[in-house]
Automatic annotation (TrEMBL):
Record organism: Halalkalicoccus tibetensis
Highest classification ranks of the organism: Archaea, Methanobacteriati, Methanobacteriota, Stenosarchaea group, Halobacteria
Domain Methanogenesis regulatory protein FilR1 middle: 170-287
HVO-A0261-like N-terminal domain residues: 36-116
Gene3D superfamilies: Winged helix-like DNA-binding domain superfamily/Winged helix DNA-binding domain (1.10.10.10)
Protein name (record): Transcriptional regulator
InterPro entries named among the record's database cross-references: FilR1_middle_dom, HVO_A0261-like_N, WH-like_DNA-bd_sf
Length: 296
């Protein structure tokens, strides 16, 4: 599930970003319910279904009883409804029960936890690599995000996905770069000649590799285009962000242990993810400095 990371040479474990997401959601859930209530609600699938039915319409005890062998008895349904009433989740009126605001909040909190758990599993390759320092990551936006992961037998999948985002119609492109990829650099640099405004922030590892490769040093010369700027950070990152006209964001991340050296990215047009990526980009931009071309 990608909830824990372990150092390869020690027995030390720590929560991944996915683990923090689950923990935070569970803590919010436990604000709404006690351990006793949680046990009652999750004892069987039909118990939760009963609460969901109450959200849709008033329920009489006999409404949940059918000829299906898995269906609870009339007595069991009645006792469960009585327990819900004691918890303040529902109340009885005219031989039926209807949901109260506390019951609605309980159900919403559970469904939030359920959705986050599903997304933590579905997006585990990304969340396992995302540093826990980004604890404000908008997990609720993950269902709409597309995930791409590079693998030992398919190392170019992430680069291929990034190239597909290299659209000549882009007017403004900003990127926080922690992975050295000449293929991507060349593709996006060509868009500058088509009128795109581009700004990049490269970490120290990427800067050093560009300096060492004479064929890529043209990236450091920002005088060729008025609408092009390149900055650098005096630190190494494991996070990459690309912002496309403030309408789409690609977030890439990797770690340096185990199989985590392969990159995972998510691509989304969700406004909360775009805002999250923009805020991080701007925070690094404040600490970045101008790059210098070795030939200057």
């Amino acid at each position: 599930m990608g909830l824990l990371n372990q150092a390869s040479d020690t027995d030390e474990y720590w929560l991944t970003a996915g683990g923090h997401c689950i923990l935070d959601a569970a803590e919010r859930w436990l604000v709404e319910v006690t351990q006793e209530q949680l046990a009652d609600l999750t004892r069987s699938e039909w118990t939760l279904e009963l609460l969901r039915t109450l959200q849709a319409r008033p329920v009489a005890p006999g409404d949940m009883v059918s000829d299906c062998p898995q269906s609870p008895s009339h007595t069991t349904v009645w006792r469960t409804l009585q327990a819900f009433a004691e918890y303040g989740w529902c109340e009885s009126s005219s031989n039926s029960y209807h949901l109260l605001p506390a019951g609605k909040r309980t159900l919403e909190a559970y469904e939030e936890l359920e959705t986050i758990a599903e997304q933590v599993i579905a997006k585990a390759p990304f969340l396992q690599r995302l540093s826990p320092r980004w604890s404000d990551f908008p997990t609720h936006a993950l269902p709409e995000a597309n995930l791409v992961v590079s693998k030992p037998d398919s190392p170019g999948l992430v680069v291929e996905a990034a190239l597909k985002l290299c659209d000549p119609r882009i007017k403004n492109y900003r990127s926080l770069i922690s992975v050295y990829s000449p293929t991507l650099f060349r593709a996006y640099y060509r868009l500058l000649s088509m009128g795109m405004s581009g700004e990049g922030i490269i970490d120290t590892s990427v800067y050093e590799k560009i300096v060492q490769n004479e064929e890529m040093q043209y990236l450091l010369d920002t005088s060729s285009y008025e609408h092009y700027d390149l900055l650098r950070l005096d630190e190494r990152l494991t996070l990459g962000i690309a912002l496309y006209d403030d309408q789409k964001v690609a977030i890439g991340t990797y770690n340096e242990i185990g199989d985590g050296q392969h990159t995972a990215i998510i691509v989304s047009s969700h406004e909360d993810l775009i805002e999250w990526g923009t805020n991080i980009y701007n925070s690094y931009r404040q600490r970045a400095v101008r790059t210098e071309c070795p030939s200057d």
